Amino acid sequence: MSQVLFRLSVQRLLERKGAARRAEIFREAGCDVSPIEHPISLGPKSVNSRAAREALQRWAPEAVILHGTRIVGKRTLRCVDVPWINIHAGVTPTYRGVHGGWWALAEQRPEAFGATVHLVDEGIDTGGILRQPRVMPSPEDHFGTYPTLQFCVALEALLELLEEGPPFVASPAVEPEHKLRYHPTLGQYVRSRWMFGVR
Q1: Alpha carbon 164 to chain centroid distance?
Q2: Strand stretches in 46-188, DSSP E
């Protein structure tokens, strides 16, 4: 229940408050966030639908890139024999799940604030690590802007990876394995902000 309270109150407030800073982060990273003039839409609402699998088979991609999607099921992962690559806002395997950057700061590990570009397997953020860029948030950053910082460094790493081309070889993890991370509770957020200044 406390996670729901956090998401409905603090998270929404910080996301609204962070709009200008997110735009600045995108500008500094050279990301064009204007709407795509003629977007290609899969149509199906689920990446795990039959329609999505059929579309992937029709398109015959060289790789499938994911960001912010639900868990991809076995049937979908196996429908095209290409690398599936995910952009994750956290340094895996320690910061699997959600809000990895915030958790790293809340645990007093700013050196682990970053992102992971990884191969997709049947687990949650458990695939082989391809790149793990780090970034240092500025004093004006907070819960509502951390994911944008992480996305921009991950995107840069992904583009470098794609320019190099396959085969995409995973590196061994340097971070320890940890349980899956979830949204912080209201109490966890307030405590981290009060004790460590983690916004």
Answers
A1: 22
A2: 64-67, 84-88, 116-119, 129-131
Per-residue pLDDT reduced to its tens digit, 7-48: 777 788 888 888 999 999 999 999 988 888 877 776 667 889
Distance in angstroms (rounded) separating the CA atoms of residues 153 and 24:
14
E strand spans, the chain: 64-67, 84-88, 116-119, 129-131
Residues 6+ apart with CB under 8 A from 1: none
Whole-number Å distance between alpha carbons of 19 and 145: 8
Residue 51 to residues 40, 56, 76, Cα–Cα distance (Å): 14, 9, 10
Give the C-alpha separation, 104 to 95, whole Å: 7
- For residue 1, pLDDT beyond 90: no
Q: What is the pTM of this model?
A: 0.90
- For residues 132 and 91, is the Cβ–Cβ distance under 8 A? yes
**Interatomic CA distance for residues 35 and 31, integer angstroms:** 12
Q: Rounded distance, CA 148 to CA 117, Å?
A: 15
**What residues does 86 pair with on adjacent strands?**
66, 118
Q: Are β-strands 84-88 and 64-67 bridged in parallel, bridged antiparallel, or unpaired?
A: parallel
> Which domains are present in the chain?
2-32+58-196 (3.40.50.12230)
